[in-house]
């Protein structure tokens, strides 16, 4: 993957909802993936100007190939938090997106890690090359 370029990072604010809480009274581990996916969906449109719907119109979809989550400290009901994401690497087969989830009140990292995404042809469901114009567009 191309590691020579520097990519932008973007931040989205969210709030912990009651249905995010597990039996231990903090956010369930699976919700952190949801938070990152929701932030990326919003940031693709708002910050990159290339919403998921535009990919779908072209017959493409993004799927998670691998993920790593590093839990640091819990988020609790009602906490406001920021999800900061940014492309770390991108090439014709996919991209790695790094993320950090930070509690707004304490400014402490609650979770960080990365997602590896692959692009697929929605007709076949198989991996395909990312169009060069998309790679160029995302190098902001």
Properties at a glance:
140 residues, alpha+beta, Thiol Ester Dehydrase, Chain A, six-stranded antiparallel beta sheet, 6 strands, elongated, hydrolase, fatty acyl-CoA hydrolase activity, 4-hydroxybenzoyl-CoA_TE, HotDog_dom_sf
Can you give a write-up of this model?
- With 140 residues, the protein is an alpha+beta fold.
- The chain has a single domain, classed as Hotdog Thioesterase (Thiol Ester Dehydrase, Chain A).
- Helices cover 21% and strands 40% of the residues.
- It contains 3 helices and 6 strands.
- The longest helix is centred in the N-terminal third of the chain and has 18 residues.
- The protein is elongated and about 45 Å long.
- The chain starts with 8 loop residues before the first strand and ends with a helix.
- The mean pLDDT is 94.
- Belongs to the 4-hydroxybenzoyl-CoA thioesterase family.
- Keywords: Hydrolase.
Write the layout of secondary structure elements.
Elements: E1 9-15, H1 29-46, H2 52-57, E2 60-71, E3 80-91, E4 94-103, E5 109-121, E6 126-127, H3 132-137
Antiparallel strand pairs: 1-3, 2-5, 3-4, 4-5, 5-6
Organism: Mucilaginibacter robiniae
Pfam family, one: 4HBT_2
Family: Belongs to the 4-hydroxybenzoyl-CoA thioesterase family.
Question: Helix/strand/pairing class, anyone?
Answer: alpha+beta
CATH fold group? Thiol Ester Dehydrase, Chain A
Number of H- or I-type helical stretches: 3
Number of domains: 1
- 3D shape: elongated
**Rounded to an integer, what's the Rg over CA atoms?**
16 Å
- CATH level-1 class: Alpha Beta
CATH superfamily: Hotdog Thioesterase
Strand residue percentage: 35-45%
């Amino acid at each position: 993957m191309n590691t020579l370029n520097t990519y932008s990072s973007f931040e989205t604010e969210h709030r912990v909802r009651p249905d995010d809480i597990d039996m231990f009274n903090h956010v369930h581990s699976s919700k952190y993936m949801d938070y990152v996916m929701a932030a990326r969906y919003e940031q693709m449109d708002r910050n990159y100007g290339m919403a998921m719907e535009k990919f779908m119109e072209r017959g493409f979809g993004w799927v998670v190939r691998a993920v790593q989550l590093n839990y640091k400290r819990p988020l609790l009901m009602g906490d406001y938090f920021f999800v900061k994401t940014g492309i770390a690497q991108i090439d014709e087969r996919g991209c790695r997106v790094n993320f950090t989830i930070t509690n707004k009140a304490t400014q402490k990292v609650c979770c960080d890690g990365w997602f590896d995404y692959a692009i697929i042809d929605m007709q076949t469901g198989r991996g395909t090359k990312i169009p060069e114009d998309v790679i160029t567009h995302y190098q902001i």
